[in-house]
Amino acid sequence: MSDTTSEQVLTTQDGKPLKQALASALRREKMRALLLIAPLLIFILLTFVAPIVDMLFRSVENSIVADTLPNTVVAMQEWDAASGNLPDEAVFAALYDDLGVAVKEKTHTRLGSRLNYEKTGMSSLFRKTGRRVKRMDEGGPFKEQFIKADKKWGQVETWATLKTFSPRYTSAYFLSAADAQLTPEGVKMKPEEQQVYLFLFGRTLFLSITITVCCLLLGYPIAFLLAALPLRTSNLLMILVLLPFWTSLLVRTSAWKVLLQQQGVINDFLVWTGIVSEAGRLVMINNQTGTIIAMTHILLPFMILPLYSVMKTISPTYVRAAKSLGANDCSAFWRVYFPQSVPGIGAGAVLVFILAIGYYITPELVGGTSGIFISNRIAYHISSSLNWGLAAALGTLLLVAVMVLFMVYDRIVGIDNVKLG
Amino acid sequence: MSALPPYASPLQRIWHYSFRTICGLIFFFLIFPILVILPLSFNAQDFFTFTPEMLALDPAGYSFKHYDDFFNNPDWQQALTNSVLIAPTATILATAFGTLAAIGLSQPHVPYRSAIMAMLISPMIVPLIISAAGMYFFYSRIGLQGTYWGVVLAHAALGTPFVIITVTATLVGFDQSLVRAAASMGANPVTTFFKVQMPLIVPGVVSGALFAFITSFDEVVVVLFLGSAGQKTLPWQMFTGLREQISPTILAVASLMVAISIVLLTVLELLRRRSERLRGLTPG
User: Fold this and answer.
1) Under 8 Å CB-to-CB from A166, ≥6 apart: which residues?
2) Domain topology for B75-247
3) What is the largest CA-CA distance in chain B?
4) N or C terminus: which one in chain A shows less Cβ crowding within 10 Å?
5) How close B169 comes to chain A (CA, Å)?
6) Is the link from the previous residue into A141 a cis peptide, with omega within 30 of 0?
7) CB-CB: which of B36, B122, B217 is closest to A255?
8) Distance CA B37, CA A331 (A)
């Protein structure tokens, strides 16, 4: 009897083994779910993930030297910069060939501006040589002709720079994002007066922490009040939190610009009440104060909403129990209520911090020069200085920071529990 | 906290009222900047502060001239047209893709669910400046930079996470046996979707669409990089206006936008109440 049961396989009506039928049903279900997700997944991959990956790639990509001067790069492989001698005639001949093509395609100026990020003077060197190279004697000797065209070709450093940046991938952008530079002799810190990025990262961090703390200090009492009030009143007061949340970022930024100006509403009011004199109008805009005030206001709802949703779940009976056991108001709050609200603080603080660290618009408009963030520098490199590689490297560093923070957020709140409004 | 008990000590009384005052001040901080621009937008002068005539409530101190300027200035009208052309298209794309994906993600067996979710939510998490930088580099490679569709696709990508979050939230309360019941009665999947599933998740879809719309309508960083002069939207025009030649017309635009957000907030609140009522969370 026991033999037959172990060999007997349960089947469906049409004779397929049940196990198989279930497995294929499950597979179909999985396929259907994936098919529903696929359009968006492909859409996001193409419109969003691909650009981000492209940016990561751009932060190390450096094929411009190898593409513009292919023969020179090959010919230069033998040459050792440490020897202190100039490369031999073959390298100069290769450079002549490459530059001839580059000048025709007008790519030599782009190479010049790329190398100018690493060593000043390279841009003008390539411009000047580009004009001269057409008049050079095709029979050579090229070494003398190049040095005659610009004496920089007779300096070992020029060639050393060219060789240092000839590989197709470089860490140079990341190094300059960290205020260091790649020199022929290895990695060195930049001179003191050129160190801007570490300072800017530090300031971004400092301002984001300040804003997060301000949001917490202002948001905690509000969330506490909203959670304690009866639902009808708290829903009404919630509108005061949600209206700013829903109002356009630019509207709120322009409101602060209007309020904080030296001839603005707040200063006028202070002068009218006599708190400050006409001459002593406060400077609250185009500096760090402006950034902190405006961004605290803009990010405050992002602190209040998670805090409120956590505080709503704290049962008031715990505090009452603590009081009935003899705790006074202070210790009942501090030892019973506050520890239960810590998850809300964590969620709100990480959210505000993530949002603050990458902010661009508000610091740009009210931050002046002392209240700007690293993101403003990224925008500057994309649209003004056109050093895209450096912009990509700074962006990558910022992205890594945000991703790490987001993992912390995921631990505290869980990615599925993100709620809106 | 909600009410002061009759046996409260004087200290508790003082604390109770001072706490309320502190909260009142914080509420004031939240709402004052938004309210102050409304009267200022009717300023008859080109100032950003209250003139003596305005404080005296003299009708001569008020005028509609900044609103006039907004409706007659070709720059602002072009910006308004562009915003109205870009935001709805981006919203439709985001809502269609997002709703389908949210239904897929709510199925009981989804392989790699958390990885997929993380990727789909990422446009909301990555700082805008980084998205803008990446999209600028990538879209200029493929020739979408400076085009209408470039901006629309980017805005749609930024809006989808909101649709996914709101729709999955409504689907949590959705009873899957309803779909099975419809199927057992002979409805095909498309009919089931439109007749059974869709009416129940509509509040989530609409509020997701509103989020996607406001994301696109308010978005400025990405459009600054991806757009060319032909895609100048309202926020872009406001941004350049605030940075370069600050004109009080901005206050008129800002006031109109506050009005739009009040409408949106009301619609969302009504939707939230409706879906809570449907789910039986709150009576009435």
Assistant:
1) A65, A66, A69, A73, A76
2) MetI-like fold (1.10.3720)
3) 74
4) N
5) 8
6) yes
7) B36
8) 43
Nearest to B125 among A58, A329, A402 (CB): A402
Q: Which residue in chain A has the smallest CA separation from B1?
A: A228
Q: Give the residue carrying structure tokens 């009142």.
A: B24
For residues A415 and B6, give the distance between their C-alpha atoms in angstroms, rounded to a whole number.
Answer: 45
List where CATH 1.10.3720.10 sits in chain B.
Answer: 75-247
Give the integer Cα–Cα distance in Å for B103 and B171: 7
* CA atoms in the 13 A half-sphere facing the CB of B57: 0
Q: How far apart, in whole angstroms, are the C-alpha atoms of residue B276 and residue B284?
A: 10
Query: pLDDT tens-digit profile of B184-203?
Result: 999 988 898 888 888 888 88
Q: CB neighbours (10 Å) of residue A362?
A: 24
B121 to chain A: nearest residue by CA? A415
Mean of pLDDT values over A314-330: 90
Task: Specify whether the CB–CB gap between A65 and A73 falls below 8 A.
Answer: yes
CA distance readout (Å), B55 to A355, B40, B51? 38, 11, 6
Q: What is the pLDDT of residues B50-63, one digit of tens each?
A: 877 777 787 888 88
Alpha-carbon distance of A141 to A162, in angstroms, equals 21
Is B104 within 8 Å of A221 when comparing Cβ atoms? Answer: no
Can you tell me the distance from the alpha carbon of B259 to that of B41, in angstroms, rounded to the nearest whole number?
A: 13
**CA distances (Å), origin B213, targets A8, A13, A301, B90, B247:** 60, 51, 20, 7, 27
Cα–Cα dist A237/B4, whole Å: 19
For the record, the structure tokens of A276 come out as 């400050």
Using CA atoms, how far apart are residues B134 and A312, in angstroms rounded to an integer? 40
Say if CB A270 and CB A283 are below 8 A apart.
Answer: no
> In whole angstroms, how far apart are CA A122 and each of A99, A107, A158, A339?
14, 14, 8, 61
Q: Which of B104, B235, B264 sits opposite A37 (nearest CB)?
A: B104
pLDDT tens-digit map of B116-173? 988 998 998 899 999 999 999 999 999 999 999 999 999 999 999 999 988 888 887 7
Q: Is the ipTM of this complex over 0.90?
A: no
| Cβ–Cβ gap B107/A250 under 8 Å | no
d(CA B240, CA A249): 14
> For A45-88, where are the alpha helices, taking DSSP H only?
50-58, 64-68, 70-76
Q: Is B159 exposed, middle or buried (0-12, 13-18, 19+ CB in 10 A)?
A: buried
Query: Which A positions 28-87 lie with beta carbon below 8 A of chain B?
Result: 29-30, 32-37, 39-41, 43-45, 47-52, 54-55, 58
